[in-house]
Design brief:
Distance between the termini: 44 Å
Bound molecules: 3-methyl-2-oxobutanoic acid
Structural class: alpha/beta
Number of strands: 8
Strand content: 5-15%
Order of helices and strands: HEHEHEHEHEHHEHEEHH
Helix content: 40-55%
Largest sheet: 8 strands, parallel, barrel
CATH architecture: Alpha-Beta Barrel
Shape: globular
Length: about 260
Amino acid sequence: MPVTTQQLIQWKQQGRPIVALTAWDYAIAQLLDAAGVDLILVGDSMAVVLGYETTLPITLDEMIYHTKAVRRGIKRAFLLVDLPFLTYQESISQAIHSAGRILKETGAQGVKLEGGYPEMVETVARLVKAGIPVMGHVGLTPQAVHQLGLRQQGKTEEASERILQEAIALEQAGAFAMLLEHIPASLAMQITHKLKIPTIGIGAGVHCDGQVLVTSDVLGLSSKQPPFAKVYTNLRETITKAVQDYAVEVRDRKFP
Ligand code: KIV
């Protein structure tokens, strides 16, 4: 049975941790889905595998193109897509247009957008009213890299209270889940207890209702990873060795 927003909320109620990872093409999506990942995010962190330095240059068309490929690889997981930078901040109608294109053209089940300031809360409310499931994203918001850097957020009492209030406001606006990025574990625990919707953490400690990582970090494909990522295998080394072995065999006329 395909995972739904209701299922994700039920898993929170049951205390069953949600497993999430990012994907950018058909092959990766198929592997993650078959391995039992619950939620697959076509994140704008895909910028890394496309060779960009930050998430800012990714376009809506690029997100749609990659999401269509990811969709073809998924049978069960919930498919979520990031709204890229400046495709939803300008106005509510811009956000509805961008999110609507994602849902209509790709078969994704929801969108994620960054920020919990009042205008964004209103945007989330309008998207939800239009029938578009939305995941909020608070704490470190990489689309604001030139304002926040990539540092941990919510370290002062004032900042942590602001993030808590943003998460509450986004839930009240109708978000079905909340991504908590790079905040202290104690704050993530407080938000997780306060919200009825599931929290998915990245660099936010063990108390979230689920965890997400960027798959290119998990697989050791990225040249550098954030401090909270865990590298489970080193595919850069594996691929380099395989390609070098192949090159040697071709040059020595051992292959074919
Ligand atoms: O783009 C992305 O991969 C994200 C991560 C925080 C999961 O949003």
